[in-house]
Queue: 2 jobs
Job 1
Amino acid sequence: MPNTVVQVENVSKTYYRNKTEVPVLADLSLTVPEGEFVALMGPSGSGKTTLLNLIAGIDRPDKGRVIVAGTDLSTLGESQLAKWRARHIGFIFQFYNLLPVLSAFGNVELPLLLTKLSRAERRKHVETVLDLVGLAPRMHHYPRELSGGEEQRVAIARALVTDPTLIIADEPTGDLDKQSATEVLDLLVRLNEEYKKTIAMVTHDPRAAERAHIARQLDKGELI
């Protein structure tokens, strides 16, 4: 039996907008085993990104528990959570979130600056993941010199460079043309199948969801 990487237990989350309660998640439970590739689908406002943020320790539930990589996130303070995220979570966003003043190499190296690795060790890690995503020849290029698909592959390399327990992907193909989206999805599948990476991906694109092992639908804060 594989280990469980994500255990969401009876979680509820409500936001407030001008003193109006906006329930987002309602008594939701989800389990993601190690090595799984899960797609979370649903219309805008269904709670997909909120659920990802809870799993990543960016937000906290009003009720219920979120246990990720063996840690109950409610037991961690903010600084402990930041250290935990740096160790266990690799983020891939829709809009890449690359720093324009840094090269591809510099963007991928950023998470490693928080570690005790030497400069030579950091270089080796960065070169390894850029080679993995097929961008070793472009490592000294800046984001403005890369295509959208290449920028997203740099973002994937940055998510991988710390060897995280879980990759969180929020609409990773949402800003890409069809060809680039296919390349990014091929890469995510390869990371899952060859490197056994556990991936939780939010998407509204059925073609993207088809590449995951499991697709779950969120509707009005409930998994169906």
Job 2
Amino acid sequence: MEVNKNNEERSTWRERERRRAREEILEAASHIFAQSGYDKASMKEIAGRAGISVGMLYNHFKGKEDIFRALLEGYMNGLHERGNSRCAAIDPPLEQLRCRIRSAIEFYWENRNLVLIYLKMNPLRLEVEAAGWERMTRGVMADLLASAMKRGDLADDDPKALSALIIGAIHRLLYIYVNDENEEAINSVPDIIDRIVLKPLETGRSGATEEEGK
């Protein structure tokens, strides 16, 4: 029994160390990508920043595209966690939607170096992952739009199409503003989306019950 316990403890320790090393690599890579850009960054630079050998780096990641995928996965998970923690309890759904848009823009600004690199990359490199992340975001937004329409807060329309429109507009506005490092312009994106997309659809019946909205 003691042997098994020791083996389990060693296994747990190794897993903790592996996770710690992986986090340090990702942190180092984010600095290198921001400094050098994705194409110019090298595994040697990332390893040097992380304080490990290149061989050890390859024990954790297949290459820099694998590292960048992990960084973006962490970003997208963090984005949704931020939205859930700040906005999930807000009612009505239209206000939750507005909260999630504001939260997303704020989170973007905090991670702008990573997102800037992603926006400038050839989209085919991460086409499968990007499609999955966007479907997840569109689904949350479309559900909130559909709920707002059911309540009567928004005029009936296609929630999936509106969700895609909103996300596309956000991406384009961010791409326009990001090079300027202009926080004020970035923070104006939720107001622009609200004014151009959501406000024209509002019925003025915010607070109507579901039964009334049918």
